[in-house]
Amino acid sequence: MKPQLRKLTHCGLMLALAFVLSMFKVFSLYNGGSITIASMAPIIIISFMYGTKTGVFTAFVYSLLQMVQGFYPPPVQTIWNFILVILLDYVVAFTVLGLADLIKKPFGEKKVLGSVVAAVAVIFGRFFCHFLSGIIIWGTYAPEGMSATVYSLLYNGSIMIGEMITTGVVVGLLVRFVDFDKIKKQNVA
Predict the structure, then answer these.
(1) pLDDT at 188
(2) pLDDT band at residue 189, thresholds of 50, 70 and 90?
(3) pLDDT for the residue numbered 12
(4) Residue 166 — pLDDT band, cuts 50, 70, 90?
(5) 47/136: higher pLDDT
(6) SS3 70
(7) Contact 67, 88 (CB under 8 A)
(8) DSSP E strand boundaries for 87-188
(9) CA distance readout (Å), 177 to 20, 100, 104, 163, 170
(10) How many other CB atoms are there within 10 angstroms of residue 68's CB atom?
């Protein structure tokens, strides 16, 4: 199999796996927040296997799939705020997952540590996008007497901490026990 076709196949398979895993929710909140069974791990692994450029592109496609899977209409009055929600809750929030390889690289031979740190870091990036969206847009749902900032921190933090733990553990185990370089180069008849 040609290297480009192999890469495209791996990206497609990991996108499909991530999409399916995102449907299995361990915990769900109203307005779409949920903890999944490490649904971001396949996207992070693609970034490790093929680098930042391929990782970012794959993560961008994943962001579009996430939007198709469960778009929640925001409580906005302007088209600009609507676009901001699309960017912060989907496009930027999920595309940042593709940066995992960039964060892992400085760890050199410490593959497992670098992979876990990278997974946690990109998920924190996703959290930050949702946190900003929560303050700017979704804060209108904050209980009376609670600031939009605290509401967003509690809502998004409760979900993303769970995602950081599950995905960090799964990515660490995968990197420790699976030789992705071998899979990347393996010829299939």
Answers:
(1) 61
(2) low
(3) 97
(4) very high
(5) 47
(6) coil
(7) no
(8) none
(9) 23, 19, 17, 21, 11
(10) 10
Long-range contacts of 159-165 (CB under 8 A, 24+ apart): 159/27, 159/29, 159/33, 159/34, 159/35, 160/123, 160/124, 160/126, 160/127, 160/130, 162/26, 162/27, 162/35, 163/35, 163/36, 163/40, 163/123, 163/126, 164/119, 164/120, 164/123, 164/124, 164/127
Inform me whether the pLDDT recorded for 96 exceeds 70.
yes
What pLDDT score was predicted for residue 98? 98
pTM of the model: 0.93
Residues 109-116: contacts with CB within 8 Å, 24+ apart?
111/175, 111/176, 112/172, 112/175, 112/176, 115/44, 115/48, 115/171, 115/172, 115/175, 116/168, 116/171, 116/172, 116/175
Q: Which of 105, 107, 123, 102 is nearest to 170 (CA)?
A: 123
Distance, CA of 75 to CA of 90 (rounded, Å): 16
Output the pLDDT for position 150: 97
